Sequence to fold (281 residues):
Amino acid sequence: MNSKKSQKIAFFLLLLATLLIVVPVGLIVVIIIQKGIGGISWQFLTDIPRKGMREGGIFPAIVGTFYLVTGAIVFALPVGLLAAIYLSEYAKDNFLTRMIKLAIVNLAGVPSVVYGLFGLAIFVIFFNFGTSILSGSLTLGIMILPVIITTSREALESVPYSFREASLSLGASKWQTIRHIVLPNAIPGILTGTILGLGRAAGETAPILFTVAAFYLPRLPKGIFDQAMALPYHLYVISTQVPNVDESIRYGTALVLLFLVLFMNLIAIIIRYKFRKQKKW
Fold:
């Protein structure tokens, strides 16, 4: 087989693999938009659910999802970043460190229901936080920690070592070098991990099922120890537990969840783009 023919076959296989991923995802998005756009209205976005969740809006679920995702990021980003700095800049390259790095990577693949049971045992029962926004946020934060640690560590290690040498040769301490040289150049990669974490935290149902999500609440949460409704769980409830819910309400809820995740990702992508423009290497 000559080189041109093998190149065409390779190109075809790569294109086929890409289409197998892109086309189903695109179809899902199109179907959700097509069936859900009719249910979107100002009242749907700002009203509470009524008549057994068969009418009204999803405002408490939107607010609850926003609280949970914000709480998860507030907890996971600083902890994950500090752990990544320690593993990449301070920890010695020995067997124990390599095992810790491998364990963190493997934790990213643990099913979300396991994190839910962990959150139930630790935060709800042991720390006695109850089923609350605090328990749910901490559980989601722990769930996305492996992603943030791994991507942040890789972003820190991608900064050329010559940058560190130049800074240290000018008399800066190791911490000053990390803070003023390494971190600013690694921020785009760190934000990539944050984006991935945002998407997973907003869309998961199992962890919040055990730790925070309420079947129905006619009011907004007043504090971090209150229960809250969340869009993923609300979508599950109206799709499986409540009969005779109009299709436009179910798909409208899915569409709002989709746009909420995309909107939060868009903000992170814009911030990442601005930092990437400042990079000079």
The chain has a mean pLDDT of 87. The beta strands are 49-50, 55-56. Residues 3-36 form the longest helix (34 residues). DSSP finds eleven helices and two strands in the chain.
